[in-house]
Structures are given as structure tokens and as C-alpha cells.
Write a structure and sequence with these properties.
This protein has helices at about 30-40, 55-65, 85-100, 115-130, 140-150, 170-180, 200-205, 210-220, 235-240, 250-255; strands spanning about 5-10, 15, 20, 45, 75-80, 105-110, 130-140, 160, 180-185, 225. The protein is α/β, with parallel strands linked by helices and about 270 residues long. The chain has a domain at about 15-190 and about 225-230: TIM Barrel. The strands form 2 sheets. Strands 3-4-5-6-7-8-9-10 form an 8-stranded parallel beta sheet. A two-stranded antiparallel ribbon has the order 1-2. The longest helix has 15 residues, at about 85-100.
């Protein structure tokens, strides 16, 4: 099946289906070079966060790249310590200055803290003031989303969660689809353990693709947005080359069946940061 390189969100905004993640790129040069490499390879979505400590490097790379701002989709997130209504507005201003941008495309809560309702109300305010194009959340289970729904005038349009074949998030993705919330997969390749599975290896051979490309294509087939991270130029390029083939329905189902509920990160119901 042919899949568009963008997905239309609830408000009509187009978001790229494959973005470039910059988690754990604290060193200025690493983040700057990574973003430049990604933009040169054809990426148009960059996903950062206040806690990654690289918003300035991302902003400098965007400026240096020469790519028109209107072509880019930039995501950042409010960190847990900065949540709450007023704090979120202040944190957003800081992120905006560090990125050296006039607006952010997608702004997310990073993790669901007890103040998630107030935090989301602040994100709604930013949306009303057109400082962000899309309001969203991150690491929200269904019950967290329902808590947001109870206070929201505009539902979140994106939920960014850990998702990969070992943690397929079937139920959460179905709930999000029901409410027209796009799902962005962080750690979309998991730990890489799935790369050695006979099903994935076999499909990689069949389609002359890498195991990572098979997994990323699976994300597209099930409706996800994916934000793989790499600082290796060849892999950065390869991760974007997943629109020129398609998996069969039974192949998608076989990869989905690899789900073992294995997380590489914290459970949003049990974290201490």
C-alpha cells in the first residue's frame, strides 16, 4: 500500500510520518551535526525537548541549513519540573528563545505529572495564541488522556509514546485512533532485539532492506509516526528510505504479533523523575 510521507492531524496540519529524534545528543556539536545531516538527507521533522539540553543546537542547525521554516515541523516538550499552567508558559518561552523560532509546530507535555490538566490548559492557551500549531501530549496512557479530555476545549492531536514491535501498544493506538489522536513512536526500533527475529530478518532479505527499515515500515503500515534517532550518516539516510516498498497485510500482522509488552523506558504509571 502506498503511504503518504505526511499525516493529516485533527486540525488539518500536515506532520511528516518519519522525523529525526535528538534524544541523548547533549553535546552541542553532536546535535548540530546530526540535525544538519538529517535535513540534508531530506528529513523535515525534528523532535527535541527541554530536558535534552540541545534546543539551542537544534535552532542553530535549522538556521544554518537554509531550509525554509515553513517546510519544517519542529516538536519540543515541557519538562516535568516545569509543569503547571504558569510554569509551562514560562518554559515554552525559554524553549522558543533557545530554538530561535517564532512558533513551535507541536508542543507536548513530556510525562503525565499530577498537574497534567493545568499543563495541558497552558498548551491550549499557546494554541489559541497561535504560538504552536498543534497541541499534544507524551507518554499518556488512556486514563491520562481521559483526564485531559475532562478539562480540554481542544483534544490533544498527538500522543508520543514508546512503541515498537516488542511494545506494540495495540489498545492505546486503537483508543487514540477513536479520538483522532495521531501516535508518534519514540524508540521506534526498540532495543534492536527484534532485528534478529526470523520474521524480521526474513522480510529484510525479501525486500532487500535493513531490519530497521522493515520495522519503520511496520510503523507506517499500522498508522504511526516514527522518530528514529541515529548519528550515523548512513543510518540517518536509510531510516528515511521506507516509502519505496510495502509490507503485505499478513507480514504486518506477523510483526505486530511479536509484542511482548517489553519497555525500554519507564512506564508512565510508574516513574520518579
Amino acid at each position: 500500500m502506498t503511504i503518504s510521507k505526511t499525516i493529516t492531524l485533527a486540525n488539518g496540519v500536515e506532520m511528516p510520518r518519519i522525523g529525526y529524534g535528538v534524544f541523548r545528543m547533549k553535546e552541542h556539536e553532536v546535535a548540530f551535526n546530526g540535525v544538519i545531516e538529517a535535513l540534508n538527507a531530506g528529513y523535515r521533522a525534528i523532535d527535541t525537548a527541554a530536558i535534552y539540553q540541545n534546543e539551542e543546537a537544534v535552532g542553530e542547525a535549522i538556521k544554518a541549513s537554509g531550509v525554509e521554516r515553513s517546510e519544517l515541523f519542529i516538536t519540543t516538550k515541557v519538562w516535568n519540573a516545569d509543569q503547571g499552567f504558569d510554569n509551562t508558559l514560562r518554559a515554552f518561552e525559554t524553549s522558543l528563545k533557545k530554538l530561535n523560532l517564532e512558533y513551535i509546530d507541536l508542543y507536548l507535555t513530556h510525562w503525565p505529572k499530577p498537574t497534567l490538566a493545568e499543563t495541558y490548559k497552558a498548551i491550549e492557551r499557546l494554541y489559541e495564541e497561535k504560538l504552536i500549531r498543534v497541541p499534544g501530549v507524551s507518554n499518556h496512557h488512556q486514563h491520562h488522556l481521559e483526564e485531559v479530555f475532562a478539562v480540554a476545549n481542544v483534544k490533544p492531536m498527538v500522543n508520543q509514546v514508546e512503541c515498537h514491535p516488542s511494545l506494540a501498544q495495540h489498545d492505546l493506538r486503537a483508543f487514540c485512533a477513536q479520538h483522532n489522536i495521531a501516535v508518534t513512536a519514540w524508540a521506534p526500533l526498540g532495543t534492536g532485539i527484534v532485528f534478529t527475529h526470523p520474521i524480521v530478518k526474513g522480510l529484510a532479505e525479501k525486500y532487500s532492506k535493513t531490519p530497521a527499515q522493515i520495522v519503520l515500515r511496520w510503523h507506517l503500515e499500522v498508522g504511526n509516526i516514527a522518530i528514529p534517532k541515529s548519528v550515523t550518516p548512513q543510518r540517518v539516510k536509510e531510516n528515511l528510505e521506507v516509502f519505496d516498498f510495502a509490507l503485505a497485510v499478513d507480514e504486518v500482522a506477523a510483526i505486530s504479533a511479536l509484542n511482548t509488552f517489553h519497555r525500554t523506558g519507564a512506564d508512565p504509571d510508574n516513574f520518579d523523575f
